[in-house]
Known about the structure:
The structure holds two protein chains of two kinds. Chain A is an alpha/beta fold. Chain A is built from 25 helices and 52 strands. In chain A, helix 1 (about 15-25) packs across helix 2 (about 55-70). In chain B, strand 3 (about 65-70), helix 3 and strand 4 (about 105-110) form a beta-alpha-beta unit. The chains are: A alpha/beta, B alpha/beta. Chains A and B meet through strand 4, helix 2, helix 14, helix 15 and helix 24 of A and helix 1, strand 2, helix 2, helix 3 and helix 4 of B.
Amino acid sequence: MSNPKGSVLVVGGGISGVQAALDLADSGFYVHLVEKSPAIGGAMSQLDKTFPTNDCSACILSPKLVEAGRHLNINLLTLSEVLDLEGEPGSFKVRVRQNPRYVDPEKCIACGTCAQKCPKKVPNEFDFGLGTRKAIYLRYPQAVPLKYSIDERACIYLKKPGRCGFCKKVCPTGAINFDDRPKEFTLEVGSVILALGFRPFDPKDLEFTGYGRLKNVVTSMEFERLLSPSGPCMGHMERPSDKKEPKRIAWLQCVGSRDINKACHGYCSSVCCMYAIKQAVIAREHSKSGDIEASIFFMDMRTHGKGFEAYYNRAEKEGIRFLRARVHTVLKGRDENLIVRYVEDDGIPKEKEFDLVVLSIGLETDPSVISLSKRLGIELDADNFIKTSSFSPVSTNRDGIFVCGAFSEPKDIPQSVMEASAAASCAQERLWPSRWTETKKKSFPPERDVYAEPPRIGVFVCSCGINIAGVIDVKEVTEYAKTLPGVVFAQNNLFTCSQDTINQMAQTIKEKGLNRVVVASCTPRTHEPLFQETLREAGINKFLFEMANIRDQDSWVHQDDPEAATQKAKDLVRMAVSKVRGDEPLPYNFVPVKKRALVIGAGVAGMVASLSLADQGFPVTLIERKDRLGGHGRKFYRTWQGNPMQDYLKGLIETVTSHENIDVRFKTTLKAVSGSVGQFKSELSDGSLVEHGVAIVAIGAESFKPREGKWNFLYGKNPNVHTLLELDQRFIKKDPGLLGLNQAVFIHCVGSRVPERPYCSRVCCTHAIDQALKLKELNPDMDIFMLYRDIRTYGKREHIYEEARAKGIVFIRYDLDNLPKVREKDGRMIVEVRDPIIDEEVILHPDLLILASAVRPRDDVGELSKLFKCAMTEEGFLLEAHMKLRPVDFATDGVFLAGLCHYPKPVEETIAQAKAAASRAAIVLSRDEVPAESITAAVNPMKCTGCALCTQVCPYHAVNIDENTGKAVVDTALCKGCGACVAGCRSDAITLKNLGNEQIMAAVEAALEE
Amino acid sequence: MEEKREESWQPKIIAFLCNWCSYAGADLAGVSRYQYPPSIRIVRVPCSGRVSPNMILDALRSGADGVLVSGCHPGDCHYISGNFYARRRFALFKRFLEFIGIEPDRVNFTWISASEGEQFAQVAREVTERVKRLGPARKLVKEIEPCPQ
């Protein structure tokens, strides 16, 4: 076969699609990102906050979207859809249709004048119809690309040419193009990633909820918009009927999930329990009075992810009420209030009045996605999610086409992001020979040395159409700029960021011999990179640049006071000029990359990650403290989908040990690590030294063995008491002792969700139920009892819970105040437990007692975390860089994690995370050098007293005291330029390049000059 | 000095905003067109932890009537822990200001996230109002009489 294509098609611009695109584009592939709406961002952009960190969703998402939007190697195709596909892995031909935007994105500056003038209002689908938008609109304020588009179904002109057309008249750049037409084209790619997401379940057919009939019954997605500061009520939380703040709010769980009766969705949507708790917590924060009464009606509380259980506990402590009840009716009360009727354990019907009812709706696949899957020949399961297997969690039935995110199963954001990287890794495993063959590379002319020159500053004042010039007298500001010391040139432009002005700016820099540039326009957060690139094109260092934000922070916020706004603009320009005068050219720092990965731990996670990198052509050193490969996988019988683990493991071990790129070291541990991303040097216990560019930590976890204490339950005393993995080993050995049993009892949550280990172990509910089913296979007449607290068979795993109940397995709930009692009498085990439904003591006589014991972190995690300077959670698991969007990265660059050392997880998630870690690692390994921060701290050794305060405040351990000189030294490869050390230094000995005290104060003093 | 206290007097307030949250919040105030008094001069810093008490004193010395420092919410710091350093530093610094006779209301510390545009406008209004009530700050400004020629 000839070389594969070096480009990939990603379908779907939600968070998973964007992550997959970024991973691939950053590691040498050209990416076409197809999104059907006018902007990327997906469902995450509609959320207010995200659990369990309460991070603002838009804030953490926007930087990723902007990065994808600006990426040289991502071809963003919005308003586009895939028509069909032919070819084979390595060379697919995909036909795509791009629908008309009617606005030229090259010309649109997103000033919003068009939308202001547009007379046509329609319900805003971004707010689920709670608010309105115009026919010409931005999908949301931070949309990427930040370009307006015309909704052809609503536009007056498009329906009747000749009428309206106001937008075309007022657009200052002439961007409106009513003649825009759909375009069809064919893309040739090596691989395809489907990240088609989900759509929220529509509860209008669930009569009992009152949705659609009662005004104050909203879905959880609608409630997100009501909470969001950019939503229809600006984050003031108003209920639809009377715009008053609701005081009593109820959440009804499992609307459209775990319901085979009305909703036809037997699966669990995985995320609703957590988002309901989050919404309750945030609603209380939002409320002006703070006296929100929040009640959550649930069946099982499923807080099975990292940090979720603690979040649940905290919410309960803060007074959020959790009622274990399924609501059967929502009725209309006085003043559009709502009466909720429900039954709790005691069986007595109750009623409660609420001001607002939120339906925790589930996730389902969009019908248009189902038909697309059919066109592409992708197999779906009975729930219309993509069919995947435990051992290839991101592969579809069609070779070379991968899947990530909620399209394969309902899942939360971190899991989607992990899968996105995993899918990227799978694509790379095949396409790696064509890395960097289709990517574009920007080149710049050599830079002029301006170090010795006196400042020659050019000031470009932007009118931004009328956005700035409508309020500020830009001519006056331009004239004023010319009078400032060091300024040799000043000019006013209509749109400084337009392509022609940019070209002209580069020309001016060369012609006038400028060596510093100030642009007075919008915000540096969006436009600084563009102008800095212009400086580089003109042959001067990009750090000799400042922006004065006279739009977002001036003309837009002082619209009624043009005089003061003009004065402020002058002040801002003066500040920028004072600052830029002191700016120095800074080096573009790079670190050469040692092309080898060190993987620590050879369980499933470590082996999968190693193999993925090795298959991409990178050498790997895999170290294992024991004398065999496989880790906990060796004790594991089968996955919940019924795939036998030992067969898989055997194949994996064979491939790993025989792979030419993998150097396996048994009985080896890590002793010391130095260096940073691209250039680590690690000392191993066998005395050897490994140089590697990246490291992947996959050291696994332990299972909790309840040898004593209240969770003992005769464990270690009676031979028929096992942990889950011990029973699995009997299954593996086909132990004949398991035949002919009469009764088995499983006790769930042994050592999990308790004060000592306040987290859910995630895997045990599913594992235990699958084992119960296996026992039933062996002994069909056997009685099996599951003693549980909440059954957490999230996602598609709910189906085996359903199956277990159908097969007569009995589930009895217990709580921490009423633990089951286990004793022995005449060699027989007796288990006593109180059944809360029948309110009676139940006495059981099992032949087999299985304890679903906790997964606990390894005791030596701390030593390893110190070596790589990575953080740990309170429970002792390793802590990723960001719980939501960087689930496999550590805060330390170049170090990644996978598997149980991160958090308990089933094997399919472990494999996905391991592949994700490989994808993230490949971003570094695919390059010859990696960029390092340019704005770093620098020490003046003459002033440094060696007090070492800077070493303590530095969050990155980038400052150290040199043993020989006794002075502080900065490792610029580690420094991120936060400046904590500068502010902390007692002797003014440490400074931040171009952001030193003098320079910041120069701007401050300039601001205060009269 | 008295006439400066009139309604029309606008104080000059230096705002040190962190690049990742509060500066973005100030941008969002603009995007959403929330209006606030033109008294604030924003200085972009990488992190609220970059701001030292000296910089605030220097600002007051150079003639600022008030100072605002704003960073990311606790736990959201782009640089892991910078906003905690800032918080600790300014809790102490406020007491020091009182000790040297500067009204603590002149120096304000707050958290504003990138999504809190309205919050930023609100803080700008409140801080302006607070400083306005105190009048111009002259305590730290060295006023040198021009040399008689």
